[in-house]
């Protein structure tokens, strides 16, 4: 039996995490899939050879940051918007608005849990990268962590914005999917951002995941990320965050 | 906390519009502590909007609301600790189980009821491990009632208390509501079931088009009606209801399930029979009964309709 000793915030977080663990699909795509993709690519021998075109590093080295971004994209675009839209559509948020819990606590729980899922997915990718494919851990860990936090917030804000703009849960899922593919492209899932040619590369470098991919590569190699990438990412994070807050609807 | 003389719920001049639609128009309500107060009216008459304003879910355009002396918006946190709400339309997380929902809601309050006992009372004991989305409509409804009452609220707002419940669980819910009241909880009940209102409520407000027509005890409402009797009978052939409408003392004629129901006063009974005989109609299985709240309701509603058209 429960007692009044736990705060509503804790109780909501516990409840929502329990519910999230009941969605094996979401957990698979956020936590496991990026590492599975990393492992498949790592199984290709040439990806494990230093490449002159990449300045002497290996393709697999670039794919650890990409796996991190992929986890963030999966959580933010495929999982979270439909959950939040569903809570609104099924009037779950309204129900909690009449209790001592606040509906913002459910939303916070969703952000925290998806953020945690991304963190676990990213740590798994980095661990498998390190142990199986000998990918060095980030050379500039603090910069890496800073970029990680920013890009996770930028993506979660995109997800929040989608659930705010979409009229229904179905629309949320549809818009999420539409945004999902360019996000995968710009984070370098098909072709790492550093090898994108000319104008295309310049444009991708101005997207949140593109800038983050480049900044993570630099931090992984132990360099301080270029100011431009950090500024681009920061502008996106703040902009998307305020739009998500601006367009959020309870009902 | 509050003085005993203060009403549990006080609504003055409440008005709420959605665009051009006036949902609630100058509603006044006073519910005393420990009372079961019913709000009765047709769909779209503003009942739920009124409840949602009292619960602090909607901001009124005009008017004042106090619940136990608290302002629904300014004293929101204090209000939410003392008021239990069952909303007409509200869901839970699809995979949240009955037991988890009850425990979660119980954890929100200082002195909750025992969730297991409450679930047993509401026939949910067998369903404790079912997720919300797999419950039937009636089970979801009973869970909603349990969640509204689990925190031992001083005031409970119950919107469409027994909609979707079978007669047996309805009785069980009524018994629970009466017990909860006996423990001191004030209850505001929205319903469109006359039987429920008559059975449970100390006082009833009839609402129509966002306004309160009348608020009185169930007996008081019945005695207000101009037609304390109901004659009901079947006819071999369909009968034009206007035939009886102008008989002196007849308040209302309506057809229901192939039978005519004539609401009238004592003096009209024989005149109605005369009129039928003149028209060559034999009333079959004629019954004359005292008017119920049902008839009083229809009578008062139609009266208001007529006044509306005259204006």
Question: What do you see in this structure?
Answer:
The complex is a heterodimer of chains A (about 250) and B (about 300). Chain A has helices at about 10-20, 25-40, 60-90, 90-95, 105-135, 140-165, 170-185, 200-205, 210-220, 225-245. The longest helix of chain A has about 30 residues, at about 60-90. Chain A has ten helices and no strands. In chain A, helix 2 (about 25-40) runs parallel beside helix 5 (about 105-135), helix 6 (about 140-165) packs antiparallel against helix 9 (about 210-220) and helix 9 (about 210-220) packs across helix 10 (about 225-245). Chain A has one domain (about 10-245). Chain A is globular, with a radius of gyration of 19 Å. The model of chain A has no long low-confidence stretch (mean pLDDT about 90). By secondary structure, chain B is α/β, with parallel strands linked by helices. The longest helix of chain B has 18 residues, at about 295-310. Chain B is globular. Chains A and B meet through helix 1 and helix 4 of A and helix 2 and helix 3 of B.
Give keywords.
heterodimer, A: 251 residues, mainly alpha, B: 311 residues, alpha/beta, Rossmann fold, Alpha-Beta Plaits, 6-stranded mixed sheet, 4-stranded antiparallel sheet
Q: How confident overall, as mean pLDDT of chain B?
A: 89
Total number of beta strands of chain B? 13
The neighbouring-strand order within the major sheet of chain B is 5-6-7-3-8-9
Taking the sheet with the most strands of chain B, its summary is:
6 strands, mixed
Q: In CATH, what is the homologous superfamily of the largest domain in chain B?
A: P-loop containing nucleotide triphosphate hydrolases
Largest sheet of chain A: none
Domain count of chain B: the total is 2
What's the number of extended β-strand segments of chain A?
Answer: 0
How much helical structure, as a percent, in the residues of chain A?
A: over 70%
């Amino acid at each position: 039996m429960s007692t009044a000793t736990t705060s509503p915030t804790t109780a909501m977080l516990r409840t929502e995490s329990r519910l999230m663990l009941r969605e094996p699909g979401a957990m698979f795509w956020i936590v496991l899939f990026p590492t599975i993709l990393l492992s498949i690519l790592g199984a290709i021998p040439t990806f494990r050879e230093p490449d002159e075109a990449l300045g002497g590093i290996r393709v697999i080295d670039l794919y650890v940051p990409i796996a991190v971004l992929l986890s963030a994209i999966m959580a933010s675009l495929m999982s979270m918007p439909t959950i939040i839209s569903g809570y609104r559509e099924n009037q779950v948020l309204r129900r909690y608005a009449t209790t001592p819990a606040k509906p913002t606590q459910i939303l916070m729980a969703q952000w925290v849990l998806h953020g945690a899922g991304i963190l676990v997915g990213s740590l798994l990718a980095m661990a498998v990268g390190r142990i199986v494919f000998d990918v060095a851990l980030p050379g500039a860990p603090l910069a890496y962590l800073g970029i990680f936090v920013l890009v996770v917030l930028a993506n979660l804000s995109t997800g929040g914005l989608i659930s705010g703009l979409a009229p229904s849960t179905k629309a949320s899922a549809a818009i999420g999917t539409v945004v999902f593919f360019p996000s995968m492209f710009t984070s370098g899932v098909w072709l790492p951002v550093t090898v994108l040619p000319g104008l295309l590369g310049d444009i991708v470098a101005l997207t949140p995941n593109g800038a983050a991919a480049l900044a993570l590569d630099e931090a992984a190699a132990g360099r301080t990320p270029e100011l431009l990438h950090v500024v681009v990412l920061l502008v996106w994070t703040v902009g998307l965050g305020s739009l998500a807050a601006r367009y959020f609807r309870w009902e | 906390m509050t003085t005993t003389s203060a009403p549990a719920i006080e609504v003055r001049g409440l008005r709420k519009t959605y665009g051009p639609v006036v949902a609630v128009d100058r509603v006044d309500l006073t519910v005393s502590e420990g009372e079961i107060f019913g709000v009765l009216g047709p769909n779209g008459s503003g009942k739920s909007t009124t409840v949602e304003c009292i619960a602090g879910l909607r901001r009124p355009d005009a008017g004042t609301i106090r619940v136990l002396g608290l302002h629904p918006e300014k004293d929101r946190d204090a209000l939410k600790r003392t008021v239990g709400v069952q909303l007409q339309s509200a869901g839970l997380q699809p995979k949240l189980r009955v037991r988890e929902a009850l425990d979660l809601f119980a954890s929100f309050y200082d002195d909750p009821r025992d969730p297991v006992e409450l679930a047993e009372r509401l026939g949910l004991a067998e369903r404790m491990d079912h997720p919300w989305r797999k419950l039937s409509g009636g089970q979801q409804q009973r869970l909603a009632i349990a969640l509204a009452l689990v925190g031992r609220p001083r005031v409970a707002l119950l919107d469409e208390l027994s909609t979707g419940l079978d007669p047996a669980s309805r009785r069980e819910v009524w018994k629970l509501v009466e017990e909860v009241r006996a423990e001191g909880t004030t209850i505001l009940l929205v319903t469109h079931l006359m039987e429920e209102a008559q059975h449970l409520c100390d006082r009833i407000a009839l609402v129509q088009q966002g306004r309160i027509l009348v608020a009185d005890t169930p007996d008081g409402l019945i005695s207000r009606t101009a037609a304390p009797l109901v004659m009901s009978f079947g006819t071999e052939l369909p009968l034009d209801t206007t035939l009886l409408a102008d008989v002196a003392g007849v308040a209302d004629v309506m057809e229901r399930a192939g039978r005519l129901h004539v609401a009238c006063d004592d003096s009209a009974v024989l005149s109605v029979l005369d009129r039928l005989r003149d028209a060559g109609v034999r009333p079959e299985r004629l019954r004359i009964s005292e008017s119920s709240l049902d008839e009083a309701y229809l009578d008062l509603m139609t009266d208001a309709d007529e006044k509306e058209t005259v204006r």
